[in-house]
Amino acid sequence: MGILKEFKEFAIKGNMVDIAIGVIVGAAFNKVIDVLVKEVITPPLSLMTDGIQFSDKKIVLREGIEATASATGKAVEEVAIAYGALLEALIDFFIIGFTIFIVVKLMNRFRAKAQDPENKEVDTPKDIELLSSLNTLIKEQNELLRKNTK
Hints:
3 domains; 4 helices; 69% helix; elongated
């Protein structure tokens, strides 16, 4: 029963919901990036490289043979290293990585503004306000103690 109780606490805390939302948004974001690379970025690259389609690029290790053309009547599949698909996946990866970097950078900037108790443009969270006021009170008390000990 301990595992079920821990799972219930995990689900109630919101961690499970956050993970699920992250997975769903990540899957949708992956589709957008995939279309962006295949339909927006790759065609101009193909034009610049005289019509070469990166997704079709491969190194053939063994040619495929159709069933009717082979002596035994069995088809032989082509064996190839599809480095063009790797190039597209790397472009996907760099776009996703750069986009996530920008989003995290913006979130950190907003978080820094929100946690600055002297910034009046953004509502400061209550815990930061309380800590700031405690810090101010401690500084005032320290100044009073220094004056009294002199």
